[in-house]
Amino acid sequence: MSALRRRVVVAGAGIGGLTAAVALHRRGWRVTVCERAPGPSAVGAGIVLAPNALRAFDAIGFDATRAAGQALPAAMGLRRPDGGWLNRADTVALTARYGRPPLALHRSALADALAAELPDGTIRYSCAVTAVDDAVGRPVVRTAAGDLEADLVLAADGIHSPLRHQYFPDHPGLRYSGETAWRTVLPAAEPKTETAETKADVDTAETWGRGQRFGTVPLADGRIYLYATAVAPEGHRPADVLAELVRRFGTWHDPIPALLERIDPAAVLQHDLYDLAAPLPRFHHGRLAWLGDAAHAMTPNLGQGGCQAIEDAVVLAHLLDAEDAGDADDAGESDDARGIPAALAAYSAARCARTDAIRVRARRMGRVAALSHPFAVAVRDLAVRATPAFAAQRAMDEIFDGFTLPARPA
């Protein structure tokens, strides 16, 4: 059976699910994306695509800059609440080292650009996937809108993945990191009030305090992505989110107080930060594969959650190219012996160790950033300031240079 007749159902229209849909569509698969939300949403936050994610997009011929992306400015780094810099990264040096600078853009813009690569009707909204039956044979996808048959199912159904729970019922699931996070995107300032000077005042930076952080990322269209984290009890939800943010960050360095004044409380997203308590034993079961947060939920401390989802999708599509050879009638072997299941097993082998190492590293980074004891914070800040720029960059080599396309199964 030709790959042109293959059907894949993707559960979830997030960045990972859409990337997989685009990659497989370009390889001739018939793609259906089932999304629980009623439609695409402009609400959301920013995302920074690191060099590894951009190289993954290159591998499927997708240009992320079409989503109004902007290379990060010449300098970015970590600051103290009084405004002093703990360290600064030179994006010119990053470009020289990794071939390109990171790219900042709005998540919804990236999702829209990916969705535009798919035929009309590919994405079915208000169509949550509730279960997948017989994933070893020909899977049947149970959805709120009816059942779908598929040759392959991709579970990109997010951090609380129902399909992960269905197939790994004994897995311990998610673990709370001890931090909650707020995210929002400020609209572009009015032309009459924005000047070159005020715009330049908003750096790409993260400020570390005592158990609290505040980050700013300017986007290409003049909008500004803001995020903040704080050590807090799980489920903590302030009645007045803006008052909470002002209380925590209103005395920090400029331009944070002025940015807080521009926040629309209705546009602030708050999520507690979780990761998987333990790695999944594998990322596949028969003809079902997990990717992104469904496979390896991680805290955002390295900015790699979305980037790793993109890597997953591209590697998976690359390995599924090999299933054509497995279906050849003259080979005398069944599809199950050499086709999709073998490609998914190769996907697990290629992705499990890398993603779990990054998950563990992100959690450790979060623990350091969330320190609150004055002595521990002073030692942390001193260590950050004392780390040479070349050493800090070298520490990221494993992540930024670590994306490769594995050999396809024979």
Question: Could you describe the 3D structure shown?
Answer:
- The protein has helices spanning 15-25, 51-59, 91-98, 107-115, 162-167, 196-200, 241-249, 256-261, 293-296, 305-320, 323-326, 335-338, 340-369, 374-386, 389-395, 397-400; strands at 7-11, 30-34, 46-49, 70-71, 75-79, 85-90, 103-106, 123-124, 129-133, 140-143, 146-149, 152-155, 174-186, 204-208, 212-218, 224-231, 269-276, 284-285, 288-290.
- The strands form four sheets. The chain has a seven-stranded mixed sheet with strand order 6-5-14-15-16-13-17, sandwiched between helices. It has a six-stranded mixed sheet with strand order 8-2-1-12-19-18. It has a three-stranded antiparallel sheet with strand order 3-7-4.
- It is globular.
- It starts with 6 loop residues before the first strand and ends in a 10-residue tail after the last helix.
- It is an alpha/beta fold and 410 residues long.
